[in-house]
Amino acid sequence: MNISIIGVPMDLGQTRRGVDMGPSAIRYAGIVERLENLNHDIEDLGDIQIGRAERVQDVMNPKLRNLKAVAEANEKLAVTVDEVVTRGRFPLVLGGDHSIAIGTLAGVAKHYKNLGVIWYDAHGDLNTEETSPSGNIHGMSLAASLGLGHPALTMIGGYSPKVKPENIVIIGARALDEGEKQLIKAKGIKIYTMHEIDRLGMTKVMEETIAYLKERTDGVHLSLDLDGLDPHDAPGVGTPVIGGLTYRESHLAMEMLAEAQIITSAEFVEVNPILDERNKTAATAVALMGSLFGEKLV
Ligand SMILES: NC(=[NH2+])NCCC[C@H](N)C(=O)O
Ligand SMILES: [Mn+2]
Ligand SMILES: [Mn+2]
């Protein structure tokens, strides 16, 4: 595979400092070497430049914090991702907070008629400025990609929506806000909460997910928020939620995706080295990327 790595040191989609160092931490944990050892062609495009949150009216808008700076960075990311896909390469985006999914999807989705999305996350990120309890845009990125919310977010890349509700599968959810629950029901979004994962087991969940996406999509983006994992395995995240997916379940999920060969773009987000324990979360991210890109135990 020809893989292009894009770092997005974004921390303006939420309020805890440090997640902007995520891309460095993941590189330090050895992502390039890990993927090169699997005989992939790796190109590291460096980091997207993130503006400063200096526009007073943005910062002060408690319903959409740092809207302008988040939107600008996502416009840049969309252009870079679009170019990577146009060159026939696989975009691998390293975050940064989850607001960057808006830009990644804007760059990817125009290349597919029916892009599928796997949202591996403790959260739904399906809030809009109306339903968000925090005003943090990292909790709005999936909604924005569905065309819901502020036009500065939904119109990144100049078009909307990026993804259809029936092409989304959420895996690992255990912290959903009221408005998000309503939206999931109203739009019929497929979701495996921790309840279904406990009941069915990860093998069945991934078999069903893969079969579901295979029959209706022509490409699949994996958006993996490290807080989908249990804080025991991924302590370095800004919004940890207990009772999450284990390291083992997550490896199995990545291995099954690798085997199914359905993933056409991916991002790993919310790694926050300041909150981490000896770069454990970045190391977990790198290990999961190893499995996603074909690493086998024997
Ligand atoms: N990408 C994330 N970690 N999102 C967390 C979102 C938390 C909460 N639902 C909110 O809207 O603020
Ligand atoms: Mn999350
Ligand atoms: Mn998220």
UniProtKB/TrEMBL annotation:
Mn(2+) binds at H98, D121, H123, D125, D225, D227. GO terms for biological process: arginine metabolic process; urea cycle. It catalyses: L-arginine + H2O = urea + L-ornithine. Keywords: Arginine metabolism, Hydrolase, Manganese, Metal-binding. Pathway: Nitrogen metabolism; urea cycle; L-ornithine and urea from L-arginine: step 1/1. Its EC number is 3.5.3.1. Its cofactor is Mn(2+). NCBIfam families: rocF_arginase. Belongs to the arginase family. This is Arginase. The lineage of its organism: Bacteria, Bacillati, Bacillota, Bacilli, Bacillales.
